[in-house]
# Entry
Amino acid sequence: MPSTPLPSESNGVLRFMTPIGSDEVTAFVSESALRARYGSVPTVGDNDVASIYGLHQLEINAAVARRIRAGARQPVVLRASDL
# Structure
């Protein structure tokens, strides 16, 4: 089951769901964290944050899974250093 990006908040934070086992984990990542790790990307539509997420979805979901395995609770908030 692929994770589901949800509309980004007006402050540039993307909320998305990541499947981990039989659960779905709510996670957040900011535009600044994504840009710090991945730089900028050509915009698809009007949402840069969702575009960056879409291009790097597997790596971002893996970061959420690592945080959960390390004991993080929901919702998981990813930092640039997590990516």
